[in-house]
Every structure is written in C-alpha cells, then in structure tokens.
Amino acid sequence: MKNKATRPMSKGFPRRVEGRISESRYQELVGILEKDSTLTMSELIRRILQNQPVRIQVRERGVWDLMEVLISIDIQLKKIGTNLNQVIQAFHGNSSSLEKFLLGKKLLAFQKELSKGQGILEEVLAKIQDRWLSE
After folding, report:
1. What's the chain's average pLDDT?
2. CA atoms within 13 A of residue 63's CA, in its CB half-sphere
3. Which of 15, 31, 76, 123 has its Cβ near the most Cβ atoms within 10 Å?
4. DSSP string spanning 105-123?
C-alpha cells in the first residue's frame, strides 16, 4: 500500500477509483469524447457514476472556422483603427503642409486596408447567413 503523503491529491476528488470496462464500452466513451473536446475521460466517467447529465458541446467545424476568421478580422480592424487614430491626431496637431500631405497618404493606405477587411468580413457574414438561414 502506498504512503498517503507521497500520493498526489486532487482538490475536489480525494479518492482514486480504478476499474476495467469492455472494449465496446470504452470505444463508446471515446466516441463521446471525440464529439466534445471540453470533456476529459475522468470527468465523463464521474458524471456517469454520479448520474449527472452528459451534455455534449458539438462544434460544427465549418462554423467554427468562420468564427476564427471573424475573430482574426476583428483583431486586424482594431489594429488599423488604433493606427488610424494616431495618424489623425498627428494630422490635426501638425501645421506643415508637407507633413499633412504625407499623413494624408497614410490615411489613404488605411482606407484601402479597411476596404479589404470589409470585403472579407462581408464574405464571411454571407457564409454564416447562408448556413443559419438553411437550418
């Protein structure tokens, strides 16, 4: 028997229980875990043993990919917005015509970046709209 002092203790679950199951039951549990990556095998078995509901959070890969693109676009647009504000502040704080001309060129470049981001955003939103309206 192992000494209790050397055994790691899990905060909410101090007692360790081990057992064996059939290969078919194991494959069934693995199948459940493949559908929900937020669950661990231990958590799944604890829920089953405690007669708690097992809710599977299914993520449709296509929609998840679109959400990742939206998050990326959001980050890019925020960076562009920050840079745009800095250029506008410099524009208003500068009295030199040459400096204002150069800052105006930067503003034009930001406008092109924003237009490009807006186009990508519209494509992604159209895909999401098609998917939601088809359900």
Report:
1. 79
2. 9
3. 76
4. HHHHHHHHHHHHHHHHHHH
